[in-house]
Amino acid sequence: MRPRYEYGDSVRLTRNVRNDGTYPGLEVGELLLTRGATGVVYDVGTYLQDQLIYRVHFLDKDKTVGCREEELIPADAPWVQNRFEFRDKVRVRCTLKMDGEVIAKAGDLGEVENVLRDGDGGSDIHYNIFINGQAIEIPEVALQAAEPEEQTDEPQH
Fold first, then answer.
1. Residue closest to 3 by CA, chosen among 37, 54, 74, 40
2. Which of 3, 14, 49, 54 sits at 20 to 30 Å (Cα–Cα) from 39?
3. pLDDT digit string, tens, across residues 86-136
4. DSSP state, 81?
5. pTM of the full predicted structure?
6. What per-residue string of b and e applies to 47-72 under the rule 16 or more CB within 10 Å gives b?
């Protein structure tokens, strides 16, 4: 098991990082850093002898966080920031069909369940959303942000 990154390498997060209980002073599940944040590797260790863990210092946030290798890409790799995050309310821009049946009409309200991207932080961003009782994958270009007052409403079922 050889590390992809070494001491001093600049890296970027590809996922949001939440406190798993090892970051002092914050509640478990509290957001520590958002995807796209950049930092510098200053230590590499292992967890359960089969996972590499990188200790990364994020200078802008003055936080040091343990990151798994699959959560990191080189800081200078191509990167496009996603527009939406987990639990954001969104509206679809077009009618959506599955097996010829309409499952959502343009303007219907849904909720982001997951952010998906191609390869190493590439520009092909998709989301798993829950809309009208369906869980579907949809490209970012087909979504728009819900109005601020809608952010507290439940998605239509």
1. 54
2. 49
3. 889 999 999 999 899 999 999 999 999 988 877 555 568 899 999 999 999
4. -
5. 0.70
6. eeeeebbbbbebeeeebebbbebebb
